[in-house]
Amino acid sequence: MTQGLTARIRENIVLYGALAANLGIGVAKFVAAGITGSSSMLTEGVHSCVDSGNQILLLYGQHRAKRQPDAIHPFGYGRELYFWAFVVAILIFAVGAGVSVYEGYLHILEPEPLRDPLVNYIVLAIAFAMEGASWFIAMREFAKAKGDTGWWRAIRQSKDPAGFIVLFEDSAALAGLVIAGIGVWASHAFADPRIDGVASILIGLILGLVAMLLAREAKGLLIGERANPQVVETVRGIVAAHPAVSAVNHVRTIHTAPDAIFVAVSADFVDTVTMGDGETIIEEMEDRLREAVPTLSSIYIRPEKRENAATLTTIQANTTTAAT
Fold this sequence. Notes:
The protein is mainly α. It is 73% helix and 10% strand. A three-stranded mixed beta sheet has the order 1-2-3, sandwiched between helices. Residues 230-304 form the Cation efflux protein cytoplasmic domain.
């Protein structure tokens, strides 16, 4: 029991680290906002609460995604995580960005009297240290997963939203803390509390940009994205290498979960292969494919004449063109 709990915590160290940091920081920011009347600090408090809720939703999504396949969902529930990732993006936009911009607008219209900013500076420094630690954990774990792939390309190709969502959130949080600090300082330096409201709006705009980027990535995963091109080529190479296969017509893949891939292969078998031989050959291919790519959860290999597959592809292409 203890080992299982430890394994889950280690598996989700990015989410647990971000959740712990945001809970503590959020309380401190609200206290500081209440003492000093800072709009940007209140905005940052809301930001931390939204981030905490997001981590809880992602943990919930991971738990739900691990349910076993059943009659209604024969390929499992893995893509439920992608749904909750999309919900997280909507929350960042609607709550985080919306409240930040609205609060900043109100503070510009009705600026509060300036108070001693020392509490704000202390809380911002502590928050920056904690958010920085969470960001470092997220960056380290994502760097391990991406390997030699470039950062932006790795984010676009990633099929696990938990890692890059926390990375985006923490990056936005650090930028927000810097803007909040500048806003508090400038408000006192120039004796104009409206600057603090402008800082709050800028934080909201950053959150809105992050939310749109996350929503785009989550939408692609929710609709269904193919596997990594290397996986596709590995599958194609293994099937094509079999002496009973004269040609591979196509390899189509889709992620049903971050670590589960559905693959459908159309292959032209040599004419001398009988139905019984074909069944044995397909079973052998499936074993080789699972050994080479353990994340292949469902494998379908369909014997199909090359000319028939080409005709079907042409018909599908013409149908798509006519529809558009």
